[in-house]
Design a protein that fits this description.
By secondary structure, the protein is α/β, with parallel strands linked by helices. The chain folds into two domains: about 10-175, Rossmann fold (3-Layer(aba) Sandwich), CATH 3.40.50.1260; about 180-350, Rossmann fold. It is built from 13 helices and 17 strands. The chain has helices at about 40-55, 75-80, 95-100, 125-130, 150-155, 165-175, 195-205, 215-225, 285-295, 315-325, 335-345, 360-365, 370-379; strands at about 20-25, 30, 35, 55-60, 85-90, 110, 135-140, 160-165, 185-190, 210-215, 250, 255-260, 265-270, 280, 300-305, 330-335, 355. The protein has a six-stranded parallel beta sheet, sandwiched between helices. A six-stranded parallel beta sheet has the order 11-10-9-15-16-17, with helices on both faces. A three-stranded antiparallel beta sheet has the order 13-12-14. Helix 10 crosses helix 11 (about 335-345). The longest helix is centred in the N-terminal third of the chain and has 15 residues, at about 40-55. The chain is elongated and about 65 Å long.
């Protein structure tokens, strides 16, 4: 992991009257115009509060969702209860500039979803300059988005003095600790797309005593071992002949929940999946196995659900979240669905560290840095 001391927003003491472009992570689930998970917003507030109390004039920008039509308005409405905040229905343009010029000390102007401008995801230099032109300095507090090479994250630092926010530095410092585990240690990795996660598994096999591979990732192991997986999701990677198959550090599910074409489900041992069935979750015996390792571990790092969480197969993910909430060792947990499971249980404060970083967490753990960190370090 890097040992760079990143420039912190809290080092900025003369902020009164200064325009500050703040890139936050506000990509939260919204349904029927209602926020369904406040975790990332809660994490964004300390940096906002710091800037507002210092008298800065804050230009707040973020993205929301994957569709161009997604809007940050529900988050603006939510923040109105805490801050003096205004909303521009465009990202950059004459209306935004007019509103920026009308800001008073300690006020916030929130821009509409950055991804409404296609230049954001293309890391367009002119778009980055347009954002930078709204401010005198830039603060990146969006660790969860900083694995993406987008204009608001890696383009803007070319034009403005750059600092990192309170949430960003918290993620940075806590996740660095994951690479120096005390023994015995356990890494639990769920979710899908093994092709993107193989380097992470290989790296952490060198660092951790055991690596449990769950979720759809485990299907790739079963298939390579010649075990029937029916219609289950697999990755674009063939593990046949891989040394990972015989690595004694790797743990796989002991039992599975499967669903047939009629929608009926049953719990089976790994070898009993039928060709017409789909693996949708780990089973209770798997949790019992993990409990033994969790009880003894000095550190447990977990990212990703154990089943098809979005389709409602969350039983064992919730069981694991409950186990970890009572773990005697250090617990570090992250991933979108993982955090959602934890929030549904009200266990947010029961872990040593709960990361809001999702995919950025995995990138950081694998590579030890993120593109938005690299541009500032090189600068």
């Amino acid at each position: 992991m890097p040992t760079h001391k990143l420039p912190a927003v809290t080092e900025c003491t003369d902020l009164k009257g200064k325009y500050v472009l703040l890139r936050s992570s506000l990509n939260v689930p919204i349904a029927d115009n209602q926020i369904k998970n406040h975790f990332r917003i809660t994490r964004a507030i300390p940096t906002l509060e710091y800037l507002v109390k210092a008298g800065a004039r804050v230009i707040l920008c973020a993205h929301i969702g994957r569709e161009k039509e997604n809007t940050l308005e529900p988050i603006f409405t939510y923040l109105q209860d805490t801050f003096t905040i205004h909303f521009s229905d465009e990202v950059v343009g004459p209306h935004t500039k007019e509103m920026q010029e009308g800001l008073k000390d300690g006020e916030i102007l929130m821009l509409e979803n950055l991804r409404r401008d296609p230049r954001e995801q293309k890391n367009d230099a002119d778009f980055a300059r347009s954002l930078a032109d709204l401010a005198e300095l830039y603060v990146n507090d969006a660790f969860a988005a900083s694995h993406r090479e987008h204009a608001s994250l890696i383009g803007v630092p070319a034009f403005l003095p750059t600092y990192f926010g309170i949430n960003f530095l918290l993620e940075y410092e806590e996740l660095q600790k994951a690479e120096k585990p005390e023994s015995p240690s356990l890494f639990i990795l769920g979710g899908a797309k093994f092709e993107t996660k193989m380097p992470l598994v290989e790296k952490f096999l060198d660092l951790y005593d055991h690596v449990f591979v769950g979720g759809a990732l485990a299907n790739d192991f079963f298939k390579a071992k010649g075990i029937e997986i029916g219609k289950s999701l697999i990755s674009d990677v063939d593990l046949t002949g891989s040394p990972l198959l015989s690595n004694e550090k790797i743990l796989l599910p002991k039992d599975l929940v499967v669903r047939d074409d009629s929608g009926a489900t049953r719990v089976v041992i790994v070898e009993d999946v039928r060709p017409d069935e789909t693996i949708v979750d780990s089973g209770p015996a798997t949790i019992q196995m993990l409990e033994l390792f969790i009880r003894n571990a000095k550190i447990i790092l977990w990212n990703g659900p154990l089943g098809n969480y979005e389709a409602g197969f969350n039983t064992e993910t919730l069981a694991l979240a409950t186990l970890l909430a009572n773990a005697p060792g250090r617990s570090m947990v992250g991933g979108g669905d993982t955090v959602a499971a934890i929030e549904s249980l009200g266990f947010q404060d029961k872990y040593t560290y709960l990361s809001g970083a999702g995919g950025a967490m995995l990138t950081f753990l694998e590579k030890g840095s993120l593109p938005a960190i690299d541009v500032v370090v090189k600068k």
